[in-house]
């Protein structure tokens, strides 16, 4: 029997969505300030309209929808995806008013791509974009990487009863510290320390590469936010190729990997447990899969070029494998080069890397290293079970921060989520082929969207069909929230109609 | 008759390289679409200088945008000195016409696709871009800000009342 949610349940959901919307309005004040300082007055007006809209809608929702109930698991799974849908419209206002997006849906696409840390972009004439808008695009990635709701909990936690439920509703499972408030504060402390140190390091390398100090700081802030959030936006249309700098590329490799690490791993490293990086199932799996995909990419590049040097293999091959595997999406080649130079073998290495993704409880997308490692162990475990005597009792354990014994329920969730990811990749690719694209291009773009990667072979552009824009928005949303909260979001409306 | 044919044939043979040079693309997107076709050939490109001029000892990197596609141009510093305006938010950059060697995967720049330019000429100087603000946007800003401020005060009062009720349960 399906339980029918009461009107009070919808009220509490609306109330909290309203409170978090206020936070979005506050967020826009930072790019508004940047625009004001740089005298980008049309952007200042765009951000003022966007921010005021957030405040009006936020106050209206939180004032009119009041309920004497606490947030439960049921509400929380709906608050997070509901918040993301509202953000899709409100955060797109300044982008659309900038005149650099062909339609409002293009601006909404950019917002979804930013918050999900995907990096696919429909912006037009990026090289003339105001800095305020650029900071906003990258800030959305930084905030989205840690979680919009997570960020709101940090600032609005006094008014957020049941914060833990909301926290888990945004695709996060682990509490690093016993209290969710402490966990959120730790995640943001790590992010801010990296923000300062990372931006400084990238700023020095960009200034060294010939960009004047003032502009280099803006570039560095944007590139850091995109790299550490495993996002992939960049302030110029050539992406990372714009800098023509191996130093910037090396910096971004470190930041991409740091961003794709599990926050529990960051906590272990910060606590001095360096051994964890060798023993952890996720880092072990990551090492093996990066090695395998790099080898495939290397073979592909050697086949396609007459004389590829080690430098080219590292700066083009390894760089893009890391970019794909951490689901960042930074590029130092043009999308068409992936088709011409990397060919089917090279593309398959990147598709595989994107599909597998980064670490769980990080800013990265994809199936995630934890699930890949566990699936492999489950496979071996099943073979062991088949060849063992019937009376033998076999247990499967793995190391992630501590030694954990794998239970049947957990194994089922791992397999279900993996199947859901693969289904989304393949079904998306089939839909893209309906629009006339070849299967390799369709699969690449579909995996890139659903794994929140952002690498592109050129399908994603402002001129692509409306159906594909909607498809990729849905794929990015599903991939970031890992399916179940999105289904719960629609499920509560269905339950209201058919429930008892 | 034979003499005329000989003259025409000679003219065609001698003119062929020049004709070949003429058909080289001036659009960067053509280079990116078929890089293997133009690899290690001299190309002529026309586009707007955007972003930054990145100084590297005696050379610079220019980034030139042609019809929405940008590419790095490696050129001696003295050739870049004539560039006065660089394209960004409030500037249209100088439009340049440049010639140089196209590299599909430059061996000295880590495999980057680039052009090593040996001649650059300014076609048109850039200018400041004026971006007017529509009147309706100003009106909407004022209206929304006023409504937001009223709601903020209302929310603040409501919260104060709530906290007072909590402090005095009777």
At a glance:
Chain A is mainly α and 500 residues long.
List the helices and strands and how they pair.
The complex is a heterodimer of chains A (500) and B (170).
Chain A: H1 7-27, H2 29-37, H3 41-64, H4 73-90, H5 92-97, H6 104-115, H7 131-146, H8 148-156, H9 163-168, H10 180-208, H11 213-228, H12 246-260, H13 263-270, H14 276-279, H15 281-304, H16 310-325, H17 335-356, H18 369-387, E1 397-400, E2 402-405, H19 408-434, H20 439-450, H21 466-481, H22 484-498
Antiparallel strand pairs in A: 1-2
Chain B: H1 2-22, H2 28-33, H3 35-38, E1 42-56, E2 59-66, E3 69-76, H4 77-80, E4 91-92, E5 95-103, E6 114-124, E7 127-128, H5 135-167
Parallel strand pairs in B: 3-6
Antiparallel strand pairs in B: 1-2, 1-5, 2-3, 4-7, 5-6
How many distinct beta strands of chain B? Answer: 7
Portion in helices of chain B: 40-55%
Number of strands of chain A: 2
Question: Could you say which structural class the secondary elements and strand pairing of chain B correspond to?
Answer: alpha+beta
- Give the terminus-to-terminus CA distance of chain B: 121 Å
Kindly report the spatial arrangement of strands forming the biggest sheet of chain A: 1-2
Number of helices of chain B: 5
Query: How would you describe the oligomerization state of the chains in this entry?
Result: heterodimer
Tell me about the largest β-sheet of chain A.
Answer: 2 strands, antiparallel
Give unreliable regions of chain A as ranges: 157-161
Q: What class do helices, strands and sheet pairing of chain A give?
A: mainly alpha
Binned, the helix content of chain A reads: 55-70%
Query: Beta-sheet strand percentage of chain B?
Result: 25-35%
Largest sheet of chain B: 5 strands, mixed, barrel
């Amino acid at each position: 029997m399906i339980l029918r949610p009461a009107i009070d349940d919808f009220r509490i959901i609306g109330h909290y969505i309203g409170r978090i919307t206020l936070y979005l309005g506050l967020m826009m004040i930072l790019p508004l300030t940047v625009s004001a300082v740089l005298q980008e007055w049309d952007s200042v007006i765009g951000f003022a309209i966007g921010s005021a809209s957030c405040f009006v809608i936020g106050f209206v929702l939180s004032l009119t929808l009041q309920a004497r109930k606490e947030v439960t698991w049921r509400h929380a799974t709906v608050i997070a995806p509901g918040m993301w849908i509202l953000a899709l419209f409100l955060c797109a206002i300044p982008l659309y008013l900038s005149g650099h997006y062909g339609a409002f849906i293009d601006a909404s696409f950019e917002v979804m791509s930013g918050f999900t840390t995907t990096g696919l972009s429909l912006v037009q004439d990026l090289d003339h974009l105001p800095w305020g808008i650029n900071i906003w695009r990258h800030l959305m990635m930084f905030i989205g990487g840690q979680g919009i709701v997570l960020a709101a909990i940090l600032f609005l936690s006094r008014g957020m009863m049941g914060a833990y439920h909301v926290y888990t509703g945004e695709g996060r499972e682990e509490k690093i510290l016993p209290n969710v408030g402490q966990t959120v504060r730790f995640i943001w402390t790590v992010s801010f320390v990296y923000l300062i140190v990372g931006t400084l390091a990238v700023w020095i390398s960009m200034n060294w590469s010939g960009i004047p100090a003032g502009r280099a700081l803006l570039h560095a802030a944007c590139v850091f936010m995109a790299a550490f959030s495993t996002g992939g936006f960049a302030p110029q249309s050539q992406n990372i190729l714009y800098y023509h700098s191996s130093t910037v590329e090396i910096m971004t490799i470190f930041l991409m990997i740091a961003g794709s690490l599990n926050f529990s791993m960051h906590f272990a490293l910060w606590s001095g447990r360096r051994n964890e990086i060798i023993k952890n199932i996720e880092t072990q799996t990551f090492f093996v899969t990066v090695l395998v995909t790099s080898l495939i990419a290397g073979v592909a590049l050697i086949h396609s070029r007459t004389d590829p040097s080690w430098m080219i293999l590292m700066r083009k091959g390894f760089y893009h494998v890391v970019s794909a595997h951490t689901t960042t999406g930074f590029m130092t080649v043009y999308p068409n080069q992936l088709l011409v130079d990397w060919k089917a073998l090279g593309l398959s290495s990147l598709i595989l890397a994107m599909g597998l993704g980064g670490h769980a409880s990080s800013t990265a997308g994809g199936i995630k290293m934890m699930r890949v490692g566990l699936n492999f162990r489950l496979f071996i475990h099943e073979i062991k079970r088949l060849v063992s005597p019937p009376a033998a009792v076999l247990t499967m354990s793995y190391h992630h921060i501590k030694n954990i014994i794998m239970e049947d329920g957990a194994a089922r969730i791992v397999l279900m989520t993996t199947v859901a990811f693969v289904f989304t990749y393949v079904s998306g690719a089939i839909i893209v082929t309906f629009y006339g694209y070849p299967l390799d291009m369709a699969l690449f773009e579909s995996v890139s969207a659903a794994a929140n990667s952002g690498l592109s072979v050129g399908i994603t552009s402002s001129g692509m069909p409306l159906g594909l824009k909607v498809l990729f928005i849905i794929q990015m949303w599903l991939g970031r929230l890992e399916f179940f909260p999105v289904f719960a979001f629609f499920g509560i409306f269905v339950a209201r109609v058919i429930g008892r | 008759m034979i003499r005329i044919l000989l003259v025409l044939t000679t003219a065609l043979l001698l003119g062929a390289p020049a004709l070949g040079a003429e058909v080289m693309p001036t659009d960067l997107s053509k280079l990116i679409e078929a890089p293997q076709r133009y690899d290690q050939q001299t190309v002529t490109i026309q586009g707007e200088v955007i972003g930054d001029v990145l100084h590297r000892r005696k050379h610079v990197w220019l980034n030139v945008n042609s019809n929405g596609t940008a590419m790095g141009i490696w050129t001696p510093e003295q050739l870049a000195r004539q560039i006065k305006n660089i394209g960004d938010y409030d500037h249209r950059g100088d439009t340049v016409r440049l010639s140089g060697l196209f590299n599909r995967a430059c061996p000295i720049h880590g495999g980057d696709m680039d052009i090593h330019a040996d001649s650059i000429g300014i076609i048109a100087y850039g200018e400041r871009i004026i971006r007017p603000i529509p009147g309706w946007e100003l009106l909407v800003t004022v209206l929304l800000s006023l409504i937001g401020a009223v709601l903020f005060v209302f929310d603040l009062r409501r919260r104060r009342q709530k906290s007072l009720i909590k402090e005095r349960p009777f």
